[in-house]
Design brief:
Helix content is about 25%, strand content about 30%. It has one domain. By secondary structure, the protein is of the alpha+beta class.
Length: about 290
């Protein structure tokens, strides 16, 4: 039997031609456990020594939360990273739609980056502003709502892990893939300093660990928030499988960017009207026998 049909199409192209495209089945994209830092503690009621109810902190402000691909969440006061990749993007929370608008991920935040709103840079002015006081209030509000987000990809080793009740959870002792969004400026500066320390040793970030802890800060309103404190850990050899892990992170970035570009394209469809006479001419040409 000839295999000519199979050699003329490749993978999903053949499936699409046959009408069995994976897109029709609504596949989910690549999924990576997500690491984040708690910006409010988790409290629980308990009994004190006198049998009276009292609120106790079971997960402190600044703890690190890992949400795995199955939706399970665990918490740890510390985390140790090996970084494989980083990207940057503009993000903006749309409270009305309960969704996060974002641009494509890029190595640097320069130029016009397409976004899920169908604009560039989420509408943020793409130029250096010399005089902030000369900017109108609407533009100021827009710029404040758009965050410069550092997206980190790597492997994390957590410290003692607990659930939201404070109970110890097992099964998270080994290195785990993660993606993490970092928006706080002090946190980003601390991470950048740690990464510069690694590159100064002529090493790749993957060859050295970074230890994370937290620092509590107070806003003018009196509310508390946490920032990341990053310090150098120890040098590590690259492991078998690290290259495949890096490839999976790059695939994740490509998939996420394809989604952003598709949303941008949906909102930027050209509104072109075809003249009926031109359409009629096309039909007539197709009917000419050769």
């Amino acid at each position: 039997m000839s295999n000519e049909l199979s050699t003329n199409f490749a993978g999903t192209d053949m499936a699409a031609a046959m009408g069995f495209s994976e897109a029709e089945a609504g596949p989910s994209g690549p999924s990576i456990p997500r690491l984040s830092q708690m910006q409010s503690p988790i409290m629980a009621e308990g009994l004190d020594e006198d049998g009276e109810l009292e609120e106790k902190v079971v997960v402190p402000l600044g703890a690190f939360k890992l949400k795995d691909v199955n939706g399970n969440e665990v918490y740890s006061r510390s985390a140790t990273l090996r970084l494989f990749a980083q990207r940057q993007q503009w993000t903006q929370w749309d409270s009305a739609a309960s969704k996060m608008n974002k641009t494509v991920m890029a190595s640097v935040l320069k130029g016009d980056l397409k976004d899920t709103r169908g604009t560039f840079n989420l509408g943020r002015p793409n130029k250096y502003i010399k005089d902030w006081n000369a900017v109108d209030e609407d533009t100021k509000a827009l710029m404040r709502s758009i965050k410069n987000t550092k997206v980190l990809f790597g492997k994390v080793t957590l410290g003692k892990t607990t659930d939201s009740t404070g109970a110890t959870v097992k099964g998270y002792e080994e290195e785990i893939d993660f993606v993490m969004d970092v928006k706080n400026n002090d946190s980003k500066k601390s991470l950048d300093a740690a990464m510069k320390g690694i590159t100064s040793k002529k090493l790749l970030p993957i060859e050295h660990t970074i230890k994370l802890s937290s620092q509590k800060e107070t806003m003018p309103t009196g509310n508390m928030y946490a920032t990341i404190v990053a310090v150098l850990g120890s040098q590590k050899d690259m492991y078998e499988g690290d290259q495949a892990t890096l490839r999976s992170f790059v695939d994740y970035v490509d998939y996420a960017n394809d989604y952003v570009l598709s949303e941008w394209k949906k909102l930027n469809k050209p509104d072109v009207a075809i003249d009926p006479s031109i359409l009629d001419a096309i039909v007539q040409v197709e009917e000419i026998p050769f």
